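User: I want to check something. If I give you two sequences, will you return the structure for each one separately, not as a complex?

Assistant: Yes, each is folded on its own. Here is the first sequence with its structure:
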Amino acid sequence: MSEATTAAEHIKCLIIGSGPAGYTAAIYAARANLKPVMYQGLQPGGQLTITNDVENFPGYPDGIMGPEMMEDLKKQAARFGTDIRYGIATSVDFSGHPHRVTVDEKVELTADTIIIATGASAKWLGLPSEQRLNGSGVSACAVCDGFFYRGKDVAIVGAGDTAAEEATYLANLCNKVYMIVRKGEMRASKIMQKRVLDNPKIEVLWNTVTDEILGEHAVDGARVKNVLDGSTRDLAIEGFFVAIGHEPNSKIFQPYLHHDEQGYLKTIPGTAKTNVDGVFACGDVQDYTYRQAVTAAGSGCMAALDAERYLAALGDH
């Protein structure tokens, strides 16, 4: 039978994306006998697969490597019967029931319930040294990794509320925080700016951009440039944090699902429900506030329970 005439596979509970939210949703959905099928997406395991040490997830007193933790969650989801597959959802149609999803632009699926756990991707500066040292001193999450730089000098790039909040957080741990701001002013709210400017541990470098992150195997400095006079300066630092925002991986869902101006999917408060019946969202694709592994896992649990209750109300479970 040709590919064009092959009937679409029908799935009771389809999970799009992996990571703490997706795998937790899979564990709960599988234990509820929803026979979940997961497509792992572009980055199986999500952002934690590029995070070395995770020390703030409950249950790991000695910490755990991000990739190892994601492999543990994957095995746990598989143990209960989750069908875990490689593939990327490339288009969706939520205009009717069942919902339709295309994977890798060729595999057609229909689903009674869909749990979206596609996460968000950190925005980066685009420097080769940034990519090379990612996980070796370069981070996009001060709350996740700031602990490793206690008593050390670090730098953070950004000018919004998140950058200001993370700079203040780092100042509680670190010896010195350089805040690199491209313009002569911040976008952050006045109260957040005041906290930064009043903190003696934070030095704001105005009208400054990063030329290069220095270090062979780990960060040991950053070369910054003043955009007004072209002068450069080398900062002696051991940690380099990028806080210029995240982009939720939600583009293919936006024609059907309510979202904010940044693209984060909106859920009904206290639930994982979207505006489309049978479609649920969890993890960083809908969380622009906390963006932590533990909160993502919690929302994955919520999504699976909401999906189970939705099917039960329809008499399908």
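And separately, the second sequence with its own structure:
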Amino acid sequence: MQTRRIGDVEVSAIGLGGMPMSIEGRPDEARSLATIHAALDAGVTLIDTADAYHRDAHEVGHNETLIAKALSSHDRGRDVLVATKGGHLRPGDGSWTLDGSPRHLKEACEASLRRLGVEAIGLYQFHRPDPRVPYAESVGAIRDLLDEGKIRLAGISNADPDQIRQANDILGGRLVSVQNQFSPAFRSSEPELELCDELGIAFLPWSPLGGISRARELGSAYAPFARIAEARGVSPQRVCLAWMLAKSPVVVPIPGSSRPETILDSVAATELTLDAEELAQLDAV
């Protein structure tokens, strides 16, 4: 398994996104646990979650609890950096809401600590800017959590370049990650990726394969990915992740998965090296 760095922590070059195991259409718990264990067996040492990854209003933190159970029942569980987030909420009607207030973020962090069963969260990220709360106040709460030792590493998600610079300033140069949407279908985060590369901050693409419902469409919707995949004898999804990894050493994709076979296919992207001509074709999509 190739590795990359988030702050001072070495992690697998491909992480596991936990959201599909806890929201609508989720599998039974046994399959989810098998998926996480398969990832660990393959060398994955980064798992992404959030307190908002749940389906019903009464089960906030469903995914965090699931991951904690999986890690505690595997001999490699202690080697994993768990990245969780706060500031996004799900009322239970399928919608997503925001609360970036410092009070909420600090309360959410405490709840995540309990669910994960740890003294300090490995990586805690502000999930999404709340237009009702000054960004500096939200990030200031993350800084406080870092200073208090409640979290070991601090990151932000769904941020633009100005917010990345502002967050890094507020955190005193301690911003270690930016988690933004990035995929062949969503390329508008290229400026954020380039800024992270410049600053040496890890860039974690979420929905790198286009999302839960669209990952299987990758080969049909984007011909170069399908063409290269066929020539290489691999899946278009594997080509997609290899293309992302080639963009910068700060990129650490976190494909969501709820099946052992899909995370294993994703992990295999670390062994696929695309040549300059192939990369140029994919960049032109």
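Because they were folded independently, the notes below concern the second chain alone. The radius of gyration is 18 Å. The chain has a mean pLDDT of 95.
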